[in-house]
Amino acid sequence: MKVAKESKLCHIAVKQYTIKRIMKNIKLRELLYHEIEKLDLTRWDQTKRRWAKILGTIPKNSEVMTAYQELVANSKLAPNEELENSLKTRSTRTMSGVAPFAVMMGAFKCPGNCIYCIQEKGMPKSYMSDEPAAARAKKLNFDPYNQVKSRLEQFEITGHNPQKLQIIIIGGTFSAYPKDFASNFIKSIYDACNNKIAKNIEEAIDINETAHYRVVGMSIETRPDWITEDEIVFLRKHGITKVQLGVQSIDEKVLITIQRGHSNDEIVKATKMLRNAGFKINYHLMPNLPGATPKSDISGIKEIFANENYRPDTLKIYPTIVLPNTKLYEMYQREEYKPWSDDILMNTLAKMKQYVPRYCRIDRLVRDITKKWTMVGTKQTNMRDVVKRYMKQNKLICNCIRCREIKGNIENEEIKLQKIEYKANEGKEVFISYESENFLYAMLRLRLGEIKSQAKNLFPILERAALIREVQSFGKQIQISTKSKDSAQHRSFGKKLIAEAEKIAKANNFTKIAIISGVGVREYYQKLGYRLEDTYMIKNV
């Protein structure tokens, strides 16, 4: 009887809360409609405090945005780009030209036995339930369809236009999940973007080529020793364009100490196989592992970019944190491991950043691990900003792509075509870009491997093909087939870069170009004369 009464009271409370939200939304629409002409878009705080006297609470930007979108949808207001930009929250999320977000797979046995990894019940190994992406996934029972729908809705109501999606699949070692499960997981991601349930993965991918929400890039996380020919074929079939490898360190002694379960041989082999198939390659690195010193970690990153067996395209640098119920925590308790102070870590990261070349992007510099899980190690989740300030104060420069992206800046400086050539995995890489003195506007990665491609056994179409592994224009993301005066996107930089890549390929005796295209970009390449063959966009040169 008591349970039934509590349930009824809960139902009444939910109903009352829903009614309050509806009434607040109606009042917000009225306020916005009647005051649209006199609003000072630079002083939303004052406006919202005044509106709070009528609404009872200060409205969030997302609530005002929802009211605005409903008025536009009902033809009560005309679209207003200035108003949309003024309400946009976390505008930096789409300043690299795409809308990136993570989708997490559920818990599954990890093949690794690394001493630093935590295993929280009900979570994939190495992830904690209160990390932002993990918390969202757990709340939705790790359902990929609902995770994507939720993120798209959040992008929309916070003022972003998430048409160009860069999806990161996270959750342990992707390659170790059962293939049927992994395939269905990815299909559900496409289904959510397409707003339609396809019969199979092939149909889901076909639909996404022209969908409203297009997947322009998709990445997975895995171990170097799980990259095989069969795995590469599987990844291509499902539209994966980037692989994040858990490298952690290239110091053999450190790899043994942390019980990583593989050596440098697997790292080099995986890097080469992926590069020859056109994938963009990310390395996860962990400074301050047992056995490492600031000097050895700095030497390690110098070696990664000096040695052509490595040379990744992007990095995620995760300083080591001691988590409970791990072997590393036991080592710490036995005084066999002592992490660096924040000052030493900051100084080391700053020096590491100086050795990252212009063709590489540092995607992350710290993980979103909350203080309750951190037994020992840095608790500064804003370490990237701390390092940035330190480098600026000491006149140190990081030339990585992220530090040079145009983002929301618009300038009148001269923009020039530039090229960087370097050897990697028994081939030549050409990094072609459009840059001003201060900013990077667009870039393309071209691989000139062996004329008889080493990936030909997997993909015969790659025989005598130069590979375009990535094309990206930076700046504020704008909608497909539109232009904006305050964005660097859609200014034909991509077309010019591709034309330049075609000239270089032809001059080097390649007969065709193969692009490892994200599904949602295939239509763009078709307009440039490319055709789809065996998951690649192909054009004879």
Reconstruct the topology from this structure:
Elements: H1 2-35, H2 44-55, H3 61-73, H4 81-87, E1 99-104, H5 132-139, H6 144-157, E2 164-170, H7 179-194, H8 201-208, E3 214-222, H9 229-237, E4 242-248, H10 252-257, H11 264-276, E5 280-285, H12 294-306, E6 314-317, H13 327-333, H14 342-354, E7 361-364, H15 383-393, H16 401-404, E8 416-424, E9 427-435, E10 440-448, E11 465-473, H17 493-507, E12 512-515, H18 522-526, E13 531-533, E14 536-540
Parallel strand pairs: 1-2, 2-3, 3-4, 4-5, 5-6, 6-7, 11-12
Antiparallel strand pairs: 8-9, 9-10, 10-11, 12-14, 13-14
Helix pairs in contact: 1-3, 6-7, 7-8, 12-14, 14-15
Largest sheet: 7 strands, parallel
As a percent range, the share of strand residues is 15-25%
The total domain count is 4
Q: Can you give the mean pLDDT?
A: 88
**How many β-strand stretches?**
14
Q: Show unreliable segments.
A: 1-10
Share in helix: 25-40%
Number of helical stretches of at least 4 residues = 18
Radius of gyration: 25 Å
By secondary-structure content and strand pairing, the structural class works out as alpha/beta
Strand order of the largest sheet: 1-2-3-4-5-6-7
End-to-end separation in angstroms reads: 78 Å
Specify the overall morphology: globular
Task: Please give a structural write-up.
It contains 18 helices and 14 strands. A seven-stranded parallel β-sheet has the order 1-2-3-4-5-6-7. Strands 8-9-10-11-12-14-13 form a seven-stranded mixed β-sheet. The protein is globular and about 65 Å long. It has four domains: 2-87; 91-240, no CATH class; 249-258 and 286-404, no CATH class; 416-540, Gcn5-related N-acetyltransferase (GNAT) (Aminopeptidase), CATH 3.40.630.30. α1 (2-35) packs across α3 (61-73), α6 (144-157) runs parallel beside α7 (179-194) and α14 crosses α15. It has helices at 2-35, 44-55, 61-73, 81-87, 132-139, 144-157, 179-194, 201-208, 229-237, 252-257, 264-276, 294-306, 327-333, 342-354, 383-393, 401-404, 493-507, 522-526; strands spanning 99-104, 164-170, 214-222, 242-248, 280-285, 314-317, 361-364, 416-424, 427-435, 440-448, 465-473, 512-515, 531-533, 536-540. Helices cover 38% and strands 17% of the residues.
